[in-house]
Amino acid sequence: MKKVLLGMSGGVDSSVAAALLIDMGYDVTGVTFKLWHPMDDIFDREDSCCSIDDVNDAKDIADILGIPHYTFNFKDVFKKNVVDYFVEEYKNGKTPNPCIVCNKSIKFDHFYNKAMSMGFNYISTGHYAKIIHKDGQMFLAKAEYDKKDQSYFLYNIPKSHLEKTLFPLGKYTKPQVRELAEKYNLGNISSKKDSQEICFIDKNGYNTFLEGYTFECSPKGNFIDISGNILGKHKGFWNYTIGQRKGLGITFNKPMFVSKLDPITKEITLCDEIHLFSNQCNISDTNWLVDKSTLFNISLNIKIRNQAKFASGKIYFMDNNITSIEFDKPQRAITKGQSAVIYINDIVAGGGIIQ
């Protein structure tokens, strides 16, 4: 019987994934990650994906299903590779996506390697995505349920890991998963709310977290227009992101939007909405899950953020491992630090960090 080490957050998705894997005939072991959080004891938090309630929920589900359950302490590596990265990107005027970095560094690096060293055949998570076999190869693909598809967050999986990774929720909708939780008699887990998007940021927001983490106040500076004229003072560099209109802290006689953040001068450029659109961007730190030669001069589907609609375009491989993306139609608020993920129909071709 093939052995699977499953990441269990204590939520409905990973709990149902465990039950499905057992039904598929796998020997399943659950593990919950102990991650760093600003509070002294992250397991006292109720709104974090790593709270004591979540750990207990995961253990309870494991007991119901009759599988072993462990905890892995990834606090130090999470703080270094995910949290510190998040902070430095924000200080440099970028808008990072820590969930993508967590998948790359924690789930599909440290967790994967730990599982392989322990003799497991596969790892698994409760992500909504699929791994498909085609022409003798394995590919990462979108989940069948578009509303919950999480393939965008997974583009950094090393291609070599695909054959040892299982995503049992790829063909299900969220309502179906909640129904399965009831079918498998998994207690009250079927009605449990989804965890918040970024586990180490609480309801007080990014700026409060950054000030507390760095022991620095959010740097003040000027709002300027695209010609460099000073428009007024902003309330702190870390409060803004590209495309933002609301919450500027200053009013104008027309809508104005954030178009640029200068980490050196701490100036924030405001513009009319028309200036937010661009038909080109560059990405670096790329990971490719298909043969790059197959991507030359063909129309591709591209997401410049998780909630963005797909945009058609082409890519060109440049020097210094830079990939240039040219969109068929200009895209709004392309943001440094976010990831652009490239698809061939439903297959994830790869992606990288917008520069």
What does this structure look like?
- It is a single chain.
- The chain has 355 residues and is an alpha/beta fold.
- The protein has three domains: 3-191, HUPs (Rossmann fold, 3-Layer(aba) Sandwich), CATH 3.40.50; 217-271, SH3 type barrels, CATH 2.30.30.280; 275-354, Elongation Factor Tu (Ef-tu), domain 3, CATH 2.40.30.10.
- It is 23% helix and 28% strand.
- It has helices at residues 12-23, 52-65, 75-91, 98-117, 174-183, 205-214; strands at residues 3-7, 27-34, 69-73, 122-124, 129-134, 137-142, 165-166, 221-224, 230-234, 257-261, 268-271, 277-288, 300-303, 311-317, 323-332, 339-344, 347-354.
- The strands form four sheets. The protein has a six-stranded antiparallel barrel with strand order 12-15-14-13-16-17. A five-stranded parallel β-sheet has the order 3-2-1-4-7, with helices on both faces. Strands 9-8-11-10 form a four-stranded mixed β-sheet, with no helix packed on it.
- A hairpin with a 2-residue loop joins β16 and β17 (347-354).
- The chain is globular.
- It starts with a strand and ends with a strand.
Layout of helices and strands:
Blueprint: E1 3-7, H1 12-23, E2 27-34, H2 52-65, E3 69-73, H3 75-91, H4 98-117, E4 122-124, E5 129-134, E6 137-142, E7 165-166, H5 174-183, H6 205-214, E8 221-224, E9 230-234, E10 257-261, E11 268-271, E12 277-288, E13 300-303, E14 311-317, E15 323-332, E16 339-344, E17 347-354
Parallel strand pairs: 1-2, 1-4, 2-3, 4-7, 8-11
Antiparallel strand pairs: 5-6, 8-9, 10-11, 12-15, 12-17, 13-14, 13-16, 14-15, 16-17
Helix pairs in contact: 1-2, 1-5, 3-4
